[in-house]
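re: ur question from earlier - yeah i can do the single chain one, its not a big deal. heres the input i used so u can compare w yours
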Amino acid sequence: MLSIQLIRQNPDQVRQALEKRRDSAPLDDILALDGQRRKLITEAETLRAQQKQESKKFGQLKASGAQESAVELERLSMALAEMRERIKSLESEVEEIEGKLEDLLLRLPNIPDASVPVGQDETGNVVVRSWGELPRFGFPPRPHWELGESLDIIDFARGVKLSGSRFYLLKGAGALLQRALITFMLDLHVREHGYTEIYPPFMVRRDCMIGSSNLPRFAENLYHDEEDDFWFVPTAEVPLTNVHREEILGPGTLPIHYVAYSACFRREKMAAGKDTRGIKRGHQFDKVELYKFTEPQSSFEELDRMVADAEDVCRRLGIPYRVVQLCTADLGFASAKSYDIEMWAPGCQEWLEVSSCSNCTDFQARRASIRYRPEPGARPQFVHTLNGSGLALPRVLIAVLENYQQADGSVRVPEALLPYMRGTEVITKPA
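and the output i got, formated as tokens:
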């Protein structure tokens, strides 16, 4: 959430920043509501001060017991009653305006950092580096949906039978390979990158969705249990953001680095015919999420480290990838600066986004009220929050299958995953 003070004091700066994001924000409405709210609060405070003075005068007159004071007492009594009613009415108006104002503020995206390239759409994104050579095959590389079915490790028909379109089953070595990837990534981030593992709930309260910036703007893309008001997480970023919701973290606590596996649930209202083949897009998928709570002055350095941690997974798997800095128009709602990591999929002949690492500055912290004390006795400040996939499935699974396929239709297991594959070194066709 953007600070109302920032909007009030620098409306042109905020307007220009949001225009760079190609976002039409109702700043004029926000400023008008803020002006009304402040005017009403001032009137109420003035009335309370007057009420206090008149109440004191009323008490003194009543205590005097003078007969000639009766008329004045009656007048003061009526005036005080009118003040109480007016103050009550003003408080009701303020409450109503604050509700409207908060709703509008919750729908405003974060302001891009000055280092983010300005762009009109995703074509304004910038490839900042790449790693690895694209594989060359002595045969036409097959897409993962053909490999998966021929190896009997992906069952599309039964996934649809169970749950409908955009669902599938992983079987045998396919399920094992998916689990190996998850465990490998968790172990790497915990043992070598210094993250603390969290196993979060996959359903959260409404407040958690608001704190992580998913509500109210993205309600239509979320799965929701109406009866208990539980929301299925679209990413572990949601519960991780809220681990320290409404807390003041003590001096020396930061930075905090968390990593979590979760299933993720998204309605994915995709265009008809888009990415219908294979497992690239689905309503349920797995992801290993990286999350950081940091002090403001170090958050962009921590973003670079997070990107490096995600890149390390790609390199250890031996899969070519590239790092792309997102332009202003392609930034996520809560992000001030983001980098995508994309793996090459030779069967699909495309770059697949397997991670998006973002610095959300104090945007989520304001929504979730997460603060810290820089030193004992210091005034609490909002933390900065960062998130990134470390990495996301099933696209990593796609990249493994397509990069490690062999001429006979089998798939070699990447060396980094061998300790997790129960002795399976090559995935072959069933007998």
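The first strand starts at residue 126 and ends at 131. not sure if urs matches, ping me
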